[in-house]
Design brief:
Blueprint: E1 4-5, E2 8-9, E3 15-16, E4 19-20, H1 31-45, E5 47-48, H2 55-67, H3 91-95
Antiparallel strand pairs: 1-4, 2-3, 2-5
């Protein structure tokens, strides 16, 4: 499962609004257990940080769905779940994200 994270300040001071949750060049986590482990590890390593920007994050997930090798025999479906306590600060850019409706993203 590809699992990007968003809205984090790293120990070196870098703020990133779209990063690999598992801190690897390959954002794939091994099932829901892998996602949970990566999330818990991320919370130990970073500070949650704003502003709450979603456009880049949603575009990254859309690109993952576009790049998926889907055939009749190998069908895939993507679920995008965003958990946040912040107000979306890039609402105009988020609303203008195009292409997600024709992809296999729920």
């Amino acid at each position: 499962m590809h699992q990007p994270g968003f809205g984090a300040k790293f120990p070196n001071g870098t703020v990133d609004h779209c990063f690999a949750l598992n801190h690897s060049a390959n954002p794939a986590c091994d099932g829901m257990g892998g996602v949970e482990a990566a999330y818990k590890e991320t919370l130990r390593r970073v500070s949650l940080w704003g502003p709450t920007n979603f456009a880049e994050f949603i575009n990254r997930v859309a690109q993952i769905a576009r790049d998926a090798k889907v055939t009749q025999e190998r069908q895939q479906y993507f679920v995008l779940l965003i958990l946040t306590d912040g107000i979306i600060t890039d609402m105009d850019q988020t609303k203008s994200v195009s292409g997600c409706t024709v992809l296999r993203i729920a």
